[in-house]
Description:
By secondary structure, the chain is an alpha/beta fold.
Amino acid sequence: MRQTLGYIVTISLVVGGLIAINSVAYVSEEKQPDTEWAPNRSTYHAGPTGTRAIYEFLSESDYKVVRWREPPERLLGSTTKVQTFVIIGRLRQDVTESEALSLLEWVERGGRLVLVDRRPDPFLLPTSEQWSITADYGPFPGLDVNPASVTDMTRDVEATRPTQPSRLTGAVQEVQPSRFAGKISFSPRQEEKKEHVLHEDDEFVGEEDYDDQQPSPSSLPSNEAVTIQANNSSPAPVVHLGHNNEVLLLDYPHGSGRIIMLSDPYIFSNAGIALRDNLQLAINILTSSGGLIAFDEYHQGRGKTQNPFAAYFAGTPVLPICAQITFLVFAVLLKRSRRFGRAIPVPQVDRRSSLEFVASMAEVQQRARALDLAIENVYSRTRRVLARYAGVEYNSTRSEIARRVAERSSLEADRLERLMRQCEEVINGKPISERLAIHLVKSLREVEGQLGMRMRSRDLKQAAQNI
């Protein structure tokens, strides 16, 4: 019990020491300020560059929304039927070419891809028959721009109106973009055609047969051909919003689905969603096709590849403490399971009592008819006790020992001397019967009893246990 208590106290002290050391040594990471130079567009982020507001609004408005934390390849075989997939840049993890191929294949099957970025990944911008779509940065924000300040983000920028009525611009009067919106352009693939940009006297492609998308052959930047079905609608991009002679919002068909591009993430951000009709525009873009809306969190660094336990305790001393405790347990187990020196025999504890030895010796002597040896064993101890009681040496004469003992006790000297002489004669070889041997041993024990020289307490306890 004491050993177990010692183990518990030791382990508690070690764990407490580890907690104290890690708590003192722990230094919390300083929060980096939110900037448009390095924005965080995650729906988990509540800062001015994040998109948590639009996600929470859609969720509380009973729209079907989900945070997608798996690779885009899972869209093709997922049992969760995603209708709209939203990628809001700038991404923490680039979209690879294989992921873009999977995502565009999903769009061909009827999905809707929403790209909200100043410059989307080129892999995600396939051509639409003879039309080529490109995107580039506008004015780049500096480090001194405060994304939470409406003045800094929209200085000298007027609200813009929809270029034409459509599902994406329904109930939208004015949209307030930022001064850092990207530039979207599209042009015919023939080299002799000039690039199309948004001007006041330009005629935009209307939204006729918007519901009947025309799948058309398209290709990725890698020039890999994609096979799609054909129908009767135009493959040309449809412009819904323009700003400063640049396209702000357009969409175009890809297979049986559509790709929607918005060149200003500020409209979807927590800081800009409440301006003008930005919220209404975001709702139109995300909910126009119905179904489940998935916000890409995989490329925002929120993929499910990370252990949930580690993710929950990330940035705290808990993980180092667990690692150190695991190391200590492993070290203890290794130490107890391996020896660090020569092999030592297991100690053999003799659990037999002295009475067992006496019984064994008596049985041996009885079988060998060695009555003189039995008398010698008992008499030697008794003579030693009598000499000590009388205060004389062990080799003193019988008469002197008997006289001294008789003077200090009620025993008769003659009787005691006669008993001692008989025992010594048997030891010296005089024949003796078994009955006489028992009588002599019994007499010796009576002398010890009369003198108060009992067996030792240990022998008494062992004798009681054997009984």
